[in-house]
């Protein structure tokens, strides 16, 4: 069984954002799988940094759409993005320092956040985006 399984319910109906959500999902899967073929963690760290960079690109995209839609909870959603990056940066530092169980903590954090954020905060975006005709 995969670490995390893609579901069409993760889509919010805006192709660019949905493609980026899938890209984030794929990077989480790569992180999980990297531990099976490179136990020293170098690929995990590189992939984690790639994930962080891609997440920032994705957040910028989402925030641009939110501004265009005059999304009423923009500041709150943007704050969630900033908090996520801060928490993930802390976890990345733990991974780089090879702290015990840091890779597992990072994976659990990413999985929990991904599902909760996309099915929660991002799902709330769907109505605003549909109203504006974004697809």
What does this structure look like?
- This protein is 77% helix and 0% strand.
- It is mainly alpha-helical.
- The chain has one domain (12-53, 61-132): Hemerythrin-like (Four Helix Bundle (Hemerythrin (Met), subunit A), Up-down Bundle).
- The model has no long low-confidence stretch (mean pLDDT 92).
SSE blueprint and pairings:
Layout: H1 15-37, H2 42-69, H3 74-96, H4 102-119, H5 121-132
Gist of the model:
This protein is mostly helical.
Mean pLDDT: 92
Structural class: mainly alpha
Please give the radius of gyration in angstroms.
15 Å
Percent of residues in helices = over 70%
Oligomer: single chain
Sheet having the most strands: none
CATH homologous superfamily classification: Hemerythrin-like
Give the low-pLDDT segments.
none
Q: Report the principal-axis shape.
A: elongated
Intertermini distance: 32 Å
Q: Give the SSE order as H and E letters.
A: HHHHH
Count of discrete structural domains: 1
User: Which fold does the CATH topology refer to?
Assistant: Four Helix Bundle (Hemerythrin (Met), subunit A)
Please tally the helical runs, counting DSSP H or I stretches of 4 or more residues.
Answer: 5
Report the CATH C-level class: Mainly Alpha
The total of beta strands comes to 0
In the CATH classification, which architecture applies?
A: Up-down Bundle
């Amino acid at each position: 069984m995969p670490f995390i399984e893609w579901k069409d319910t993760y889509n919010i109906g805006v192709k660019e954002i949905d493609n980026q959500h899938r890209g984030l999902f794929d990077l989480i899967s790569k992180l999980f799988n990297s531990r099976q073929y490179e136990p020293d963690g170098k690929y995990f760290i590189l992939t984690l940094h790639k994930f962080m960079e891609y997440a920032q690109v994705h957040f910028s995209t989402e925030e641009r759409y939110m501004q265009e839609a005059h999304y009423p909870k923009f500041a709150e959603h943007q704050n969630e993005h900033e908090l996520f990056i801060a928490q993930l940066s802390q976890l990345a530092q733990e991974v780089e320092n090879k702290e015990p169980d840091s890779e597992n903590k990072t994976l659990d954090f990413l999985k929990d956040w991904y599902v909760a954020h996309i099915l929660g905060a991002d799902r709330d975006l769907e109505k605003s985006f549909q109203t504006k005709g974004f697809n």
